[in-house]
Specification:
Layout (H helix, E strand, L loop, with lengths): L1 H61 L3 H7 L1 H26 L1 H16 L5 H44 L1 H6 L3 H27 L1 H25 L5 H42 L21 E8 L9 E8 L4 E6 L5 H7 L8 E6 L2 E2 L5 H6 L1 E4 L8 E2 H5 L8 H10 L3 H6 L7 E2 L8 H13 L5 E5 L7 H14 L4 E5 L3 H4 L4 E6 L2 E6 L1 H7 L1 H10 L2 H4 L1
Parallel strand pairs: 3-10, 3-11, 6-9, 9-10
Antiparallel strand pairs: 1-2, 1-4, 4-5, 7-8, 11-12
Helix pairs in contact: 1-3, 3-5, 3-9, 4-9, 5-7, 5-8, 5-9, 8-9, 13-15, 18-19
């Protein structure tokens, strides 16, 4: 009879079990779908955050003056744009996947645990402050080390960058072993710091698991006592343990985020340091533009010193050049020649005096308007990876092949370009390493010529050319410009001797100004430079 009753009860429970089981399967399926969608959306959001932050950082850096570049350093800016942003992107991903879910799991677990047994829930009240204190101590110890780690990455990046860019010099002077030791030292500093951080952060998980196990023991101990007194059922205790496990695992998830936060916080501080920095050179609120005589450049009593320098690099510089003129600047090493050139495009701002372009102070012009009127060829020929056509179109985006070939012809570069297998489509390696120094200089000159600016600036841009090519290029330039003016920095007398105006610098001051013959008679510094390069017949 009893067996019949048991079978009847079992049959009566079967629909309930099937209904609840189906509901559980449905909930599990929905949870799986939501987890997949959550992972997809969190990854997409974090990637978008990283993309936007990189764009904002890059935009900020492109607006820096050379003063800000000198302050942060190129290796550090690279690390901040890559590694630091990646750290923040990872935290955003983990936060969206875990940090948002963990509080709901914890709150839900607490509610269900309290509903089962209020007195036994007091264990949770005691354990949570201990977990919070442990995480706080670990984070406080790890934060300074994470900041040091990012600085070590900067240093490693700098050493690696110098090693790769200077590999020819390193091999030429047989310094490979020395550079290996230098790299190993930088790498060891980073790894030692990373090990120290890992030791601290690795303590988080064992502490959490230890607390979890002690909590389980406490629940079983006190729960067993309540079962023994008849205040609790065995099933309720098992359910209570599961709810506590849910709470503890949500705290473990939260602690995983907390482990990542100190490094992300250090990275965020480094990124904000760049974003919050004030750019020394700014556009005026009411900019002016040059309408006529744009090739005219005038320095009026200009004084300039680099940030942190004890004395000015340039003092009381005054001169004027008119459209169609070739003005050359010459002087000894460290006399301030390249500094003058860097002031015209407003890479730095002067301390006092004024620089006028077409009669307008360059500080009253937009930087983009100012630089659009200048064709600048730097002392170090810089080419970008791509084709020859791509590099020349940096000067003018819509330049036609005819314009490109005309600029190459003036720059005395058309011959070697046409001899290359693919002509204008020939590949230029990164930094132009597959070209000679003279070829890179001529392509840099052609890039400036192609935009047909009002002012050409050549910062010792003929140093890698032989005398014959140098002479032909200067002659072609003279015939090309009519309303434009030319500023040339040079070390060779042969490059400047035909200029309409030669400015002689010595220790940041103008010590002579005039034509070649005039300066030979009146300027001791110029005569000394000329006598070291020219024969007595040429001087006569």
């Amino acid at each position: 009879m009893a067996d019949i009753v048991d079978i009847g009860i079992a049959n009566a429970d079967t629909p309930y079990i099937l209904r609840v089981g189906a509901l559980m399967l449905l909930m599990a399926g929905l949870a799986t779908i939501f987890a997949i969608v959550s992972s997809f959306l969190s990854a997409r959001t974090a990637s978008g955050f990283g993309r936007d932050l990189r764009k904002k950082l890059f935009t900020k850096v492109t607006g820096f003056s050379l003063e800000e570049f000198d302050k942060f350093g190129t290796p550090s800016l690279i690390t901040r744009s890559t590694n630091d942003i990646n750290q923040m992107q990872q935290v955003v991903t983990m936060s969206l996947r875990m940090m948002l879910r963990a509080p709901f799991m914890a709150i839900g677990g607490i509610i269900m645990a309290v509903s089962k047994d209020k007195k036994l829930s007091i264990i949770i009240v005691f354990i949570m402050p201990i977990i919070a204190l442990a995480m706080f101590i670990i984070g406080k110890k790890g934060m300074p080390l994470f900041k040091i780690m990012q600085e070590r990455i900067d240093n490693l990046n700098q050493v690696l960058r110098e090693k790769l860019s200077g590999i020819r010099v390193i091999r030429a002077f047989n310094r490979v072993e020395y550079e290996k030791k230098r790299f190993d030292a930088a790498s060891r500093e980073l790894s030692d710091n990373a090990i120290r951080v890992s030791r601290i952060m690795a303590a988080a998980m064992p502490i959490m698991m230890l607390l979890l196990n002690f909590t389980t023991i406490a629940i079983i101990w006190f729960g067993g006592a309540r079962i023994d007194s008849g205040n609790m059922q065995v099933g309720d205790l098992m359910a209570f343990i599961q709810y506590v496990m849910q709470i503890m695992f949500s705290l473990i998830m939260f602690s995983m985020i907390f482990i990542m936060l100190p490094r992300a916080s250090a990275s965020a501080a480094r990124i904000n340091e760049v974003l919050d920095s004030t750019t020394a050179i700014k556009d005026p609120k009411e900019p002016k533009n040059v309408k006529t005589n744009a090739g005219s450049v005038e320095f009026k009593d200009v004084t300039f010193s680099y940030p942190g320098a004890e004395e000015p690099v340039l003092s009381n510089i005054s001169f004027k050049t008119e459209p169609g003129d070739v003005t050359a600047i010459i002087g000894g090493t460290g006399s301030g020649k390249s500094t003058i050139i860097n002031l015209v495009p407003r890479f730095y701002d002067i301390d006092s005096g004024s620089i006028l372009l077409g009669g307008v102070d360059i500080r009253q012009m937009r930087q983009s308007d100012l630089r659009s009127k200048i064709g600048f060829v730097s002392q170090r020929a810089v080419l970008f990876s791509g084709t020859i056509r791509d590099n020349l179109q940096v000067g003018k985006e819509d330049a036609t092949d005819d314009e490109i070939m005309h600029a190459l012809k003036i720059a005395q570069a058309s011959d070697f370009v046409l001899r290359m297998e693919d002509g204008l489509d020939s590949i230029v390696a990164q930094g132009g390493t597959n070209l000679s120094g003279g070829q890179k200089q001529r392509l840099s000159i052609a890039r400036a010529l192609i935009r047909r600016p009002d002012l050409y600036i050549f910062d010792d841009s003929f140093s890698a050319l032989d005398f014959k090519t140098d002479a032909r290029l200067r002659l072609a330039l003279k015939e090309e410009i009519e309303d434009s003016s030319i500023l040339i920095i040079a070390q060779r007398i042969s490059t400047v001797m035909d200029a309409d105006r030669i400015i002689v610098l010595n220790r940041g001051r103008v010590v002579g100004m005039g034509r070649h013959r005039q300066l030979l008679e009146t300027c001791d510094v110029y005569r000394e430079i000329a006598s070291s390069q020219l024969s007595e017949e040429e001087l006569a």
